Recover the amino acids of this structure.
């Protein structure tokens, strides 16, 4: 299972984005199921613009099962807030915190992101260990 951050969605569904070609190439090479979170989708739709072609294409991609959506339960949201506080010296937004929380609960640390610096810093607590993310960028 591969977690997907906001950047790849924006790049994939906005052909004018500087990362579009690279993101499309990475997506074409992936064989594992993709999963993202509601905060990531919210951020992607905001950046694409609600009435844009990119937003419509992303809605279609999600609707056809191109990516699964992971929802935050109350305990997951509390963990995301805890992470945001923990990383306050390296500001972590809710979208990133939700992905780290999903990584912990789903026990996966592979992430498709353009934001390699942040995810090189973040760690997911899985079992008794703190694991680095494997970034696909």
């Amino acid at each position: 299972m591969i977690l997907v951050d906001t950047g790849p969605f924006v790049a994939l569904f906005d052909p004018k984005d500087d990362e579009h070609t690279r993101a499309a190439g990475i997506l074409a090479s992936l064989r594992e199921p993709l999963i993202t979170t509601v905060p990531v989708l919210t951020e992607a739709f905001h950046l694409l613009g609600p009435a844009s072609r990119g937003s419509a294409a992303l809605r279609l991609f999600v609707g056809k099962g191109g990516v699964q959506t992971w929802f935050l339960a109350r305990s997951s949201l509390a963990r995301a807030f805890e992470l945001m506080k923990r990383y306050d010296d390296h500001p972590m937004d809710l979208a990133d915190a939700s992905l780290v929380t999903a990584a912990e609960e789903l026990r996966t640390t592979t992430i498709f992101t353009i934001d390699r610096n942040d995810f090189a810093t973040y760690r997911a607590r899985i079992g008794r260990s703190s694991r680095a993310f494997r970034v696909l960028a």
